Automatic annotation (TrEMBL):
<comment type="similarity">
    <text>Belongs to the F420H(2)-dependent quinone reductase family.</text>
</comment>
<dbReference type="GO" id="GO:0070967">
    <property type="term" value="F:coenzyme F420 binding"/>
</dbReference>
<dbReference type="InterPro" id="IPR004378">
    <property type="entry name" value="F420H2_quin_Rdtase"/>
</dbReference>
<dbReference type="Pfam" id="PF04075">
    <property type="entry name" value="F420H2_quin_red"/>
</dbReference>
<protein>
    <submittedName>
        <fullName>Nitroreductase family deazaflavin-dependent oxidoreductase</fullName>
    </submittedName>
</protein>
<dbReference type="GO" id="GO:0005886">
    <property type="term" value="C:plasma membrane"/>
</dbReference>
<dbReference type="GO" id="GO:0016491">
    <property type="term" value="F:oxidoreductase activity"/>
</dbReference>
<dbReference type="InterPro" id="IPR012349">
    <property type="entry name" value="Split_barrel_FMN-bd"/>
</dbReference>
């Protein structure tokens, strides 16, 4: 089963032929700049689409803290995204409460565990909108 760094490596090497379709969902690769190290960090994430924008969920399985990739993009919202063979620069931003109310049900339809993750934590799990620049 693909996960973590191996998932990223195989996805990138095959332009998503391996790793885009994962456990009934679709995955993109999000690359952020480390807020302390300045190094590029790539993460495979389940995504949804709203128009031309992509949506990802900063769930970290319902952990009490935000994932590192989310903290990185808050510090530097210019990110790289790969969807299959399409690699592009995007601006990342946290969805507003109104956007989240509209987009969360769609993301929970794509990956039903998101509702469980939200129930496990006191933090409001952010949705992130990725817009190609």
């Amino acid at each position: 089963m693909l996960y973590g760094a191996e998932h990223v490596r195989r996805y990138v090497e095959t332009d998503g032929r391996e790793g885009h379709d994962w456990r009934g969902a679709q995955v993109l690769i999000l690359t952020t700049t480390g807020r302390r190290t300045g190094q590029q960090r790539s993460t495979p994430l389940i995504y949804g689409q709203a128009g031309d924008d992509y949506t990802v969920v900063a769930s970290m399985g319902g952990a009490p803290e935000h994932p590192q990739w989310y903290r990185n993009l808050v510090a530097d919202p210019t990110v790289r995204v790969q969807v299959k063979g399409d690699v592009f620069t995007a601006e990342a931003r946290t969805a507003t409460e109104e956007e989240k109310a509209r987009l969360w049900p769609e993301m929970a339809r794509i990956w039903p565990d998101y509702d469980e993750y939200q129930a496990k934590t006191d933090r409001s799990i952010p949705l992130v909108i990725l817009r190609r620049v």
